[in-house]
Design a protein that fits this description.
The chain is mainly alpha-helical. It is built from ten helices and no strands.
Length: 201
């Protein structure tokens, strides 16, 4: 039976969403095309009807995952973002968490198309964090961008370090607490830093 154009598009989107989750959970090298298609409910042979290569899917799934984080970020101020991002809940939720924290190290060894999606995603997240900022070409805007870039790099790095520790390690929690408090102290010295948000970036 011939699949309609609309159904083919829906199938492709489902494969991309499935890949985005699996790649975040297992890494790019930890997921083969056959396993990925099986998880999405399709046969291995159908993969190349949608994608030219695994790298093509990796790039598209990275854009998908980063867009999810960016969409959630637009509903948060910086303090709420930091509390949600540097929470144990986010740290433990690799498959649905931030793509940059889950796959940034892997992306550095991937084709340019994959790295380009990460670069675009970083720019989009910076724009979301700076959405109430000054005019783009002003000195204030450049300073705000630098602060947002520092915040993002600090937060992503903290998740990466925490995840590198055993799940039951006291250090895993200490990294999150210390980095969260340091960032929040800069953002707002009066902020209460001891409570994690229930939000999930």
């Amino acid at each position: 039976m011939k699949v309609s154009k609309a159904q083919a598009q829906a199938n492709r989107a489902h494969i991309v969403a499935t890949a985005s989750s699996l790649f975040r959970e297992r890494g790019y090298d930890g997921v083969g095309v056959a396993d990925l298609m099986a998880a999405a409910g399709f046969t291995h042979g159908g993969f190349y009807k949608h994608f030219g290569s695994k790298a093509d899917l990796m790039a598209e799934s990275a854009a998908c995952g980063i867009a999810q984080t960016t969409a959630l970020t637009t509903d948060m101020n910086r303090v709420d973002f930091v509390r949600a991002y540097l929470s144990r809940q986010h740290r433990d939720a690799r498959a649905i968490g931030c793509t940059m924290a889950a796959l940034g190290g892997d992306a550095a060894r991937q084709p340019v198309a994959v790295r380009a999606e990460f670069a675009a995603g970083i720019e989009n997240l910076l724009a979301a964090l700076n959405r109430d900022g000054a005019a783009a070409d002003s000195a204030d805007a450049r300073q705000a961008r630098a602060k947002s870039l520092n915040l993002l790099a600090h937060a992503v790095g903290a998740i990466v370090l925490s995840r590198a520790c055993p799940d039951d390690s006291a250090l895993a929690d200490e990294i999150l607490v210390v980095c969260r408090e340091e960032i929040l102290t800069v953002l707002t010295p009066a902020a209460t830093t001891s409570t994690d948000s229930a939000g999930q970036p």
